[in-house]
Amino acid sequence: MKKYIPYFLFAAIATVPMICNAGEGVSTSAKGAKAYIISPANGEVVGEKVTVKFGLQGMGVAPAGIDKSNTGHHHLLIDADKLPASGKPMGKTVKHFGGGQTEATIKLSKGVHTLRLVLGNHLHIPHEPPVVSELITIEVR
Asked: Which pTM does this prediction carry?
């Protein structure tokens, strides 16, 4: 007989990464690991719907909640002034791709925007040292 996890229990488990204490659950990144944005290119002019393709070198991609060494999932910072705090789960100011996605189509308003990737571990916490892409600037017309 198959056993199923009740929805309320699944929902509770899914929220644990967002409420863990600072400093708990920090993962070490692989030496030389790099996150990068494959497209759009820095300085590119794009439409309001833009597909952002995520790149990762030296580590693997795994969905949120999967605690496996040298893996993580992408988080996209849009127009962020600073990087997420070290040792703390990334909050609502970043777009989470906890399913292990390696690209996403996002809608942006017209104007100039900045994009940056941050790799998070199974608890949405940046690795130590952080695996962060270079900041790129795009223009939406």
From this structure: 0.81
